[in-house]
Amino acid sequence: MTGDAPTIVFAAGGTGGHIYPALAVAQALRAARPNAQIAFLCSDRPIDARVMSATDELWTPTPAKPFGVRPRALARFLWNWGRSLRASRSVLRGADALIVTGGFVSAPAARAARIEGVPVVLLNLDAVPGKASRLVAHSASVVLTSSHSDTTPASWERLPPIVRAALLDMPEPGACRTELGLDPGTKTLLVTGGSQGARSLNNALIDALERMPDAFYGWQALHQAGEGDEIGDRLKAAYDGAGVKAVVTPFVERMDLAWHAADLAITRGGAGAVAEAWATRTPAVFLPYPFHADDHQKANARPLIEAKAAHLVDDLIEPERTRAALAPLLRELLASDQARSDMKRGYQSLGPCDGAQRVASRVLALIEPSPA
Fold it and tell me: Strands 58-62, 37-43: parallel, antiparallel or unpaired by DSSP?
């Protein structure tokens, strides 16, 4: 550490769900140590460039690739391992700590940190830790988790949810809607499948808009659709056909505004979405990603379900089946202000979302010497 200026590197990439919590912790670190030197190791996926380019952070894309057992995926992983290791070492040289948030960027970065003698802090986000998190945990100096699930090792230090500071503010919803291009006085439905969208969720909403348009009367929507398959045009046509004003966009740059604008959210069960619903006290319906073998998104959402602040509906993949499963609940929540108010009250039993500040304190305690 140079003087009193810590140098901290984050390894976070592949999805917004890995990057945004790291940005939240970086923000908390700077609040505690304004002169901190911070850098990011990310993947070379377009989503990483999109998220990081919207910040003032110094970031380096690495060629890291997910581990896979199929021959082509395994060959790609092995071919890029050495290059990822070298890229990570060049950024980590002289750093005081590496913070990893899981995902495939984490493993080569953590290995590079061990070679360079840099302590590693694992920040686990999902209720069921992924392969990279389990691997890194064996050699990490500190292991932190924002999950309190019994599927997370009991020895890992528990933290509240981790969100950026803007999500903890409580701006006036109408002002947020106006900034997003929505009507300030109209009830707002937020639909998001995460930073890269969700095809089956998008298609289920299209089916709902076409088959039960009356349920959406008096509402408007902000829909983060992701890229590809002309999905934006199809969604816009469905909203228009149902007479629903909607902003449909591949990517929402200001998710803090989106959550504060929303009266109800339909979303996946990624750790980030759960934390953001929690932080903003937004009634939510979670449709977890249906292809995860460990069902970790269901486990992520469980605290909100148990608090009756959210509901869980299975994504049955086929649009008409998912819409049929979702329809009764969706009708009730869109029609009943009382039902949504009851859900908001459910958040009162949950604690604060100050996990980013606690991570920052824990990291600084690790790298800064105690006063004599």
Answer: parallel
283 closest CA partner among 269, 306, 266, 301: 266
Any domain includes 2: no
Residue 124's domain is classified under what CATH number?
3.40.50.2000
> Burial level of 324, CB count in 10 A (0-12/13-18/19+)?
middle
Alpha carbon distance 239, 248 (integer Å): 9
Over residues 221-268, the pLDDT tens digits come to 999 998 876 888 999 999 999 999 999 999 999 999 999 999 999 999
What pLDDT digit, counting tens, does each position of 149-162 carry?
888 888 999 999 99
This prediction has a pTM of 0.91
- Contacts of residue 354, defined as CB under 8 A and 6 or more positions apart, other chains included, come to 160, 168
Residues whose CB is less than 8 angstroms from the CB of residue 326 and which lie 6 or more positions away in sequence, other chains included: 204, 208, 266, 285, 287, 313
| Structural domain range at position 124 | 7-162+353-367
* Distance, CA of 263 to CA of 95 (rounded, Å): 43
